[in-house]
Amino acid sequence: MKALVLAAGMGERLRPLTDLMPKPMLELGGHPLIHYPLAMLRSAGITEVAINVHHLAAVVQRGLGDGSALGLRITYAPEPVLLGTGGPLGSLRDFLGGNEKTFVIANSDTIIDLDLRAMIAFHRDRAALATIALFHPANLDYYSRLEIDAGKKLRRMRLLAGRDPLRYDDYPPALDDAVAASLSPFMYCGVIVAESAILDLIPPATRWSLMEGLFAPMVARAQSVFGYVHTGYFRTMDDLKSYDALKAEFASSPPKLFPV
Description:
The chain is α/β, with parallel strands linked by helices. The protein contains nine helices and 14 strands. Strands 1, 4, 5, 6, 8, 9, 10, 11, 12 and 13 form a ten-stranded mixed sheet that branches. It has a two-stranded antiparallel ribbon with strand order 2-3. It is globular. The two termini are 20 Å apart. The mean pLDDT is 93.
């Protein structure tokens, strides 16, 4: 199985740190941030990984090399112009759509103790086209809402369009009131398991968003998209404040994560 780790972003909310160091390579707990999702993938037996790069790409490539020091084989996908979270799927179609029909997409700024093997088994048991890792934070209104039914199928995506007032773009745009009331809302927590068949559904644009451009329309069409609920450790490094908080947490009580 192969994986794509998204690492091309500018990290603008972490400036001035990211003026000289790309976000995936910022240090946390003695390791670059990107080591944590890479360790999660390796723990599930995934050793062939593509990483898209843009901002300070050479720093990422020098820091990780060919991946052999991490027990991986890394393929880099440079983006001279940013392609969004979905764009890399087009340029990596041959890499991701080979003999192995299932692949994983992971964010480079997610720190999570997700049992990826169990998530892949969940995905296959349901013959899903895509399975999205979900989490229920204390501040759900800060995020887009991904809503699942009792069988864990994603029935609606409410993509955050504004916070003041709170506004969403809904996929599907209308849902029976009784059905809507029965759904459980979560946020996306940075990992997706997908079948290569979804590569035939990607939009023609070169720059596009995974959620808005692919998975939300799939949910609107009632295609086989499921949510895998994670209840363990989950953190993201969104800005300078959250970075400082994470550094303090790792210094005082480091979480039990996959060996990096």
